[in-house]
Every structure is written in C-alpha cells, then in structure tokens.
Automatic annotation (TrEMBL):
Residues 168-266 form the FAD-binding FR-type domain. This is nitric oxide dioxygenase. In the C-terminal section; belongs to the flavoprotein pyridine nucleotide cytochrome reductase family. It is an enzyme of class 1 (oxidoreductase). CDD domains: FHb-globin_2. It comes from Corynebacterium kalidii.
Amino acid sequence: MSTTTTLLSDSVRTRRLTPEHEATVVATLPVIGAHINEITPVFYNRMFDAHPELIRDTFNRGNQRSGGQQKALAASVATFATMLVDPKAPDPVAMLSRIAHKHVSLGITADQYQIVHDHLFAAIVEVLGEAVTPDVAEAWDEVYWLMAEVLIDAESGLYQAAGVEPGDVFRDAVLAHRRDLSDTVTEFTFTADGFAGARAGQYVSLGVVLEDGARQLRQYSLVDWDTDGFTVAVQRDGEVSTALLDTLAVGDRVDATLPAGDLVLSDSVLAGETPVVLVSSGIGSTPMTGMLSALAAAGTAPTVTVIHADDTEDTYAQRKVTAGYVAALRDAGATVRVVERYREAGPAQGVVDVADLAATSVVPADAAWYLCGGTAFLQDIRTQLETAATTVRPAAVNVELFGPNDWLLGE
C-alpha cells in the first residue's frame, strides 16, 4: 500500500456525517443518484460559462464531449456518499487516491474546490427544485466538503513530497527524439527537469496549445525516465495525441507536469520477493514497459509474467521494446514468461484465459497483478481473476484504464 493510500485511509476513517445529516443522505441518496447524470451536465455548463479558462486550459474537452468526465464526477460523489452511510459499501480510499494523483497531475489547487461546490449545488437545485430543502442542501453540503477536505489534504501531501507549491507542477519539455513504433503509435523522448524520481507505472500530463488557442492536457504513462527527461508512447486518439503526432517536431516544447499516479510497482515486487504478472492490451503496454524497465534496473532477478493482447503482431507497437527488457531480465537471472494473444478482428474479451494459464503454470500463484488496457478487456480479466481466485490467489490486483473513470475498475 502506498504512503498516499495509507494517509487517505487514516483521513477517511476520521470523517463522519452527523447523525441528522446521515439520515437525510440515506433518504435522499436514491433521488440524487437517479438524477446525477442530469445534474452533472448542468453543473459543467454552468461552471464553464462562469470559468471558460477551465475548459480551455484544464479539463479535457474530449472527455467532456464523451461524457466521461461527467460520469466520473457522478460516480465519485455517489460512491463517497454511499460509503459514509453504508458500512458494507466499498472503501473509497483507492478511488480518492486516484483522484488526488490525477488532480495533482493537472495542477488543481484547494481554491478550485469552492468553484466546483458553488456550481454543483446550483445545478442540483436547478434539476431537483423544491426537493432540495434546506436540510437536504445542508446534508449534501457536508458530504461534498468531507470529500473535498480528504482530497485537499492528500493533494497537499503530494505537492509537499514533490517539493513544489500547490499547482506548480508544469515544466518545459523539449522534444529531443521521436520514432514510429507502428502505424498508429509514436514514441516521444523529451528533455525536462524533475523526472529522476518517477516510479514505474506513473504518468505525466502533456499540454499542447491547439489551433484555437486552448491548452489541452492528456495523461501518458512513462516508458522511461532519468535525470535528463522522459519518454512516452502516443497513440492517435483525441485532440492532444493527434496534435503531438501531426505537429510536434524535434526542438519544439510542450507543457509537462511532474510524474503522478499511485499504480506503481510495490517494493516487494522490485525486491524480487513477490512474483508479478503484467497484463495489457493495445496501448496499455506502455506502463508495462516502464515497469519492465524498472525491474531490469533493480537487478533482483524477479519472477515476471508478461501477457499482452492485441489485434495482430504488427499492431503490438511495443513488442520490440518489451522483448529487449525481457532479454535483459533473463540475462540477469530473472524467470520471465511471455504470452502474446492476437485476436485479429475478434473481441478483446476471452483472448486471455487466466484459468488455463494458471493450470499450465504460466502464471504463478500469490503474484501481484497489474492490468492496463481497454474497459471490456480489463473487466474480463478481473472477472476471470475472481472466478479463479482459489487457484491463482492474487496478492494484489492493480488496474489502470486510460480515461477519467479508471478508478472504477480498481474497486
């Protein structure tokens, strides 16, 4: 468990609603939950009308258009409220840790929580009308600020650990090299300060100024990093990635945030004490190459299983990079198994058979699992792990999804 998660656990345990407010939230949670997807578009429209700089320079417009960010807000608020009033509800710590890291990667500061509060509650009143009595408003106001205080404290700790003032995470990154890995994926290497302390599995936000003057941000997992800079892999998908692929030349600069993310290799894995299984599909191989790089550098001869699913061998953009790290690990005495599954034009689900891999000793029991890829693929692997839990006995299952709802699959 990361330091951030431990601190969040302690913080969440001290947060409780008053009995009166708890009763009100229990009574109104079904109504709020039923209308939350109506409330959030109103909220974002109100907030962006009042603060256009947020949609221009901070929030990802693609996620807004798809509704992904709005669903993330709805899910996080509802999940936190449910946790406060239902002792059987899932622990929200993993969710809050993911959100805190994502906020730090965007340079979010404490004062912005007031902006969100004001427009969110105005939207609730607009949608629910007279149902929002003073007592209801007061109870949900407490829910919001309990959640906000936990996140603000966590984000403050992350900024302090990075040795920066809150929000001061943007650095100049200059493109030093780019190379095509496939028809759709290109590797970018930037020179920048502040990345030597990155951890395998973390990501960086890159910001590019588009033709209309908006500075849009998107997160990319780190493939490699050192005192001189970092490397990421970019797949053609969305405004930011397209702009990087089509317009960025060697010598150009972009905004880059300091590394963030809590989906990182544990100390026991890096020490070679716990076997690790790295499962990915498509561009989800990116954080796995970063993890393989760290394992190779650790020199501890770990037990590693690498499983990747893709359309074809040609679309597996980081196949050669992965093979290089695998060879280095084997040369150092590590036990490494590699499984590649290609679905051609078929669905992602079912390509990887966890029970079969366990039965043939390809995946070891009691391993730490790290998963990254598309939603359907990840849900399928999670379901298989739950079904095969008695034989696979995963020590931990860590999930990364490239989108604003990534924490939902980590529950």
